[in-house]
Write a structure and sequence with these properties.
The structure is a single chain. Helix 1 (10-21) runs parallel beside helix 4 and helix 3 packs antiparallel against helix 4 (115-125). The chain has 150 residues and is α+β, with helices and mostly antiparallel strands. It contains 5 helices and 7 strands. The longest helix has 18 residues, at 25-42. A hairpin with a 2-residue loop joins strand 3 and strand 4 (70-83).
Length: 150
């Protein structure tokens, strides 16, 4: 069983995951299960579920906390990764405005967007393109994940 620790029903979290990742609801259980397995294997509570769109990557950030016989899953928001060489367009300006945290990461810039604006941000990012079919699940190191956790 999975619960959402911030008092919102789990369905709201699942709806956010479906909206941001542009998924059909029948794939969501498998993806959440993979995220829980990855978190458990690596012992990291912060997990990213990522897709690419137009050579840009967007990742939904989850915090997965094991409790007896279930997991608490909290959708913390979305991180959009853009190349440092990306030209500033009106769409990118909107992503910047939506961002709560902006960080540089090697050759990329990471824009953290709260769950409430994540779906809108991804729609702007992928306005003229469909997301790649491939979905990756990866752990985010605790030291970085805590930055986004309020």
């Amino acid at each position: 069983m999975m619960k959402n620790p911030r008092g919102d029903p789990l369905m709201r979290s699942i709806d956010t995951i479906i909206e941001v990742l542009n998924l059909s609801s029948n794939k969501i259980n498998e993806i959440i299960k993979n995220a829980v397995i990855k978190s458990e294997e690596l012992g990291e509570p912060y997990t990213l579920i990522c897709r690419k769109c137009n050579n840009r990557e967007f990742c939904l950030l989850l915090k997965i906390t094991p409790v007896p016989e279930e997991y608490l899953i909290d959708v913390l928001g979305c991180i959009i990764y853009l190349s440092r060489n990306e030209k500033i367009t009106p769409d990118i300006e909107m992503i910047i405005r939506f961002s709560k945290i902006i960080r540089t990461n090697n050759e990329r810039i990471a824009f953290y967007i709260t769950p409430e604006l994540s779906g809108k941000a991804v729609k702007i990012l992928c306005r003229d393109h469909s997301p790649d079919e491939k979905i990756t699940v990866k752990a985010l190191p605790y030291e970085e994940g805590i930055i986004y956790d309020e």
